[in-house]
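Before relying on records like the one below, remember that each one covers exactly one chain. Contacts with other chains, cofactors or solvent are not represented anywhere in the record.
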Amino acid sequence: MNITIAIDSLKGSLSSLEAGHAIEEGIRRVYKDAAVNVRPLADGGEGTVEALACGMGGTLETVTVTGPMGRPVDCQYGILPESGTAIIEMSGAAGITLVPDAEKDPMKTTTFGVGEVIRAAIQKGCRRFIVGIGGSATNDGGAGMLQALGYGILDRDGNQIPPGAQGLAQIASISSEHVLPELSECTFRIACDVNNPLCGPRGASAVYGPQKGADEAMVQVMDRGLAHFAEIAGKWNPKADPEFPGTGAAGGLGFAFLTFTRAVLESGIQIVLEETKLREYVKDADLVITGEGRLDGQTVMGKAPVGVARIAKEFHKPVLAFSGSVTREAAACNNAGIDAFFPILRSVVTLEEAMDPENARKNMADTAEQVLRLIQAVQPMQAL
């Protein structure tokens, strides 16, 4: 029996690898000599740094940077030494969870810390970057990040504009005179799963501004600020395109990456699947196992388990999924390549008990064991 496991984290409970190894424990109670490959899985959002760094022989680094409100925060990122790749979640430096509800104000929040993380990774020798840009607290068009990398985002007096969306209307020119020289050697794969343009009714300010603390008047000011930034950026780089899908991601950070660095915006799960070379493990497997914390109607909308299932079906492999819970809408997963799925809860418990890591690990292992016992029992029947 050759089994490949690639399961997303059960957020707040088990990491991707912890969940995978719990499934492996259950498998080995039934098939002691099975060849089991546990691969890291994430969708480019929370947990991507840990999953890829720990699952691919990398290291975790911590750097103190400027947080979204200007206060220092410790941001963890990953390095894969063999390929010189840095794995960054922008939310670790400029995420909305770093801002107390009472302080949410996208007119002031900055991406400066994101640029500081990139700078730190460059100084460690990294030239390839995987950057997840979900969960931002910002709407500064990535201007803060660019300033941290050495760009001059300047007002009429030649001074750097102030942090946050409040400074965008003051931009008079852009200078690359002091940009970190190594930046030209760097490439960026940006995990971006939204297609919003930079401005307008579907833009960064209108769609995501309110959840970051913006009122209606503020949304209008921020939208005009981003449009002004795009106009000035277009003079600096004629290829700047604020209408390109995804430029509105993370308060315009997608626009900054595309316009000022060698970047591409891609599906987060596709980046992870390619970087982890999952196809090489799936093609020889007898069984593929995936899952996530909750399987529901959203799972089929490009989330990690369905990404795994699609690869498995390219090679006509059976796919099982395990999750902390499932909804009725999860039935759509059966039409998306997941042949059968199983919730791991064994009894009626509180949410805290269900999410306790040790309970979750035992439940995952026990559920995997029983499913594999069913497979073991059915195999002799198939031979008849």
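The mean pLDDT is 95.
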